[in-house]
Amino acid sequence: MNQPLPPHSAPSATRRRHFLRTAVAGTVLLSPALTRSAAADLGGAFSRVVARQMKVDAGAQVVAEPARRTPVAAEVDVLVVGGGPTGVGAALAAASEGAKTLLLERNAMLSGMWTAGLLNPFFDPRKGWLVDRLIEKLQQQGAWVRKGMDVFDVEMMKFVLERLMAEAGVEYWYNCPFTEPILQGERVRGVIVESKSGREALLAQVVIDCTGDGDVGARAGVPFERGRKSDGLCQPLTLMFGISGYEGFRGLPADRLTTHEFFKDLSKVIDEQRLPIQLPYGPQRSGTPFLIALPGKAVAVVQATHVYRVDATNVREMSRATAAARRQVHEVFLPAMRRIPGLENLRLSQTAPQIGVREARRLEGRYRLELDDMLQARRFGDAVTSVGFHVDLHELDPKDSTPKLPPFPPGVTRHTISKRDIPHPRCLLPKTLEGLLWAGRCISGSHEAHSAYRVTGTCMAMGQAAGLAAATAVRRKTTPSELDGAELHALLRARGAQFLPRGLRAAT
Ligand SMILES: Cc1cc2nc3c(=O)[nH]c(=O)nc-3n(C[C@H](O)[C@H](O)[C@H](O)COP(=O)(O)OP(=O)(O)OC[C@H]3O[C@@H](n4cnc5c(N)ncnc54)[C@H](O)[C@@H]3O)c2cc1C
């Protein structure tokens, strides 16, 4: 049985403000934008927001907004923006080091692609420290299965993470998208958010951008790149979907994690039926996970849809991509899958709440991780983690014949690269700004290197390193950029973070 949920702990300044607002409003939590007098003047039956006047310049197609004073809703040591695998690692690490920590998440659940993206399996999990703690908690709930690949129960992931946050003392705000950084000269002092609670300012000693897309860094003016160097093309997007009524097929057990056979069967149906779809991986990659059975009986998630040439930071393109992928699920994949013996009765349980973005902005940091670092198996004394996953570039466009990767040295393949130690020194720090760190798939690296370090175990490990760096800087009254990287590496090891074995060549 689950333990009773600990009370949701809050940084004290925030808790006080919440209490004040609740006290003013009685049982209703009023937004700071709602004035007490406005509510009182209306006899308590109605509330009214004091609206702002704006000037519309229709000719120039702009709206002039008046200057404004925004209430400070919280002041914390470490503010984590984005609650995906990276953000939960960062927040748990910062709070467990004693920092007053607040995490902002635009969805109403933690863990990003793990939950809102319906993703599985958990790649590159052997990272130690907080990654191990999460896995242990999932195992205790029977929500983690290790059979060649590591799969987890998506619903239990949401719940376990909320409990871990509560135990560590992290406050998290759901449905709270980041709007704008608060910049003072060369220092990031916090962020502005706009939510149902109105427009609010949040102050912090250190902000960690874990949005995946590098939203905070980009809005703070950090240069960024995206996609392939030659033309900016990014990897395609995928809307995962869940199925039930899956009992295995071809006599294979239902808990088979991924099926080479499934890819072949689906390809055959698509060819026979002349369906307007190209399977994502191409013949040379048919062993890639595709239909992933989850812990428990008769449920699986499917990674099949691909939408190409999308800018994941453009809301209109994202809306069209989501609808296009959902159409692929209903009109192509489900009918095709139901033609495979053993899958005739399968049902769609859901399409993921959020389409999966493999690649968006990569922020410019103090070091750019290159494919060559992996090919040369470079080691760095200030590594914050290692990458245990291979180079995994999906087709950028099925019609594009440009080679995805440069030729590798003899004897090296994109798979053998995964056996090398690949650290991320200085990839998490802006060149000039202070008070800001980032981690996850938006770190400073090349398009090709990114395809290996973007998996979730690596991202959570980067997050835990960023959280530790931020909390250590706050405790020492210094900035993350002033921390010695080799010392941070040692602090991580002391907490049980795992790196690949020593003995490989050191970086010059
Ligand atoms: C289709 C697909 C399949 C994949 N398969 C695997 C796999 O099998 N195994 C594996 O390990 N990895 C896989 N990956 C890679 C992995 O999922 C991502 O690279 C990883 O989740 C990145 O972690 P992150 O925390 O940096 O970003 P995300 O997981 O994207 O999390 C970012 C979080 O920030 C929040 N956020 C974003 N912007 C804002 C904002 N402005 N304000 C507030 N919150 C915000 C988001 O809601 C989200 O919760 C896959 C990726 C895709 C797209």
In the CATH hierarchy, what is the architecture of the largest domain at level 2?
3-Layer(bba) Sandwich
What ligands can be seen in this structure? flavin-adenine dinucleotide
Characterize the main sheet: 7 strands, mixed
Number of helices: 12
The geometry reads as globular
What low-confidence regions span 5 or more consecutive residues with pLDDT below 50?
1-40, 503-508
CA-based gyration radius: 24 Å
Terminal CA distance? 52 Å
Q: Which CATH class of the largest domain is shown?
A: Alpha Beta
CATH topology of the largest domain: FAD/NAD(P)-binding domain
Average predicted confidence as pLDDT? 85
How many separate domains make up the residues? 2
Note the beta-strand portion. 15-25%
N-to-C SSE string, H for helix and E for strand: HHEEEHEHEEHEEEEHEEHEEHEEHEHHH
Query: What is the fourth-level CATH superfamily of the largest domain?
Result: FAD/NAD(P)-binding domain
Number of strands: 17
Oligomer: single chain
Secondary structure: elements and pairs:
Layout: H1 12-25, H2 36-41, E1 55-57, E2 62-64, E3 72-81, H3 85-96, E4 101-104, H4 129-140, E5 144-147, E6 149-152, H5 154-168, E7 171-173, E8 178-184, E9 187-195, E10 198-209, H6 215-219, E11 224-226, E12 241-244, H7 260-273, E13 291-293, E14 299-302, H8 315-337, E15 347-351, E16 361-363, H9 371-375, E17 436-438, H10 447-453, H11 456-475, H12 485-494
Parallel strand pairs: 3-4, 3-10, 4-7, 10-17
Antiparallel strand pairs: 1-2, 5-6, 8-9, 9-10, 11-16, 12-14, 12-15, 13-14
Helix pairs in contact: 3-5, 3-11
The chain binds flavin-adenine dinucleotide.
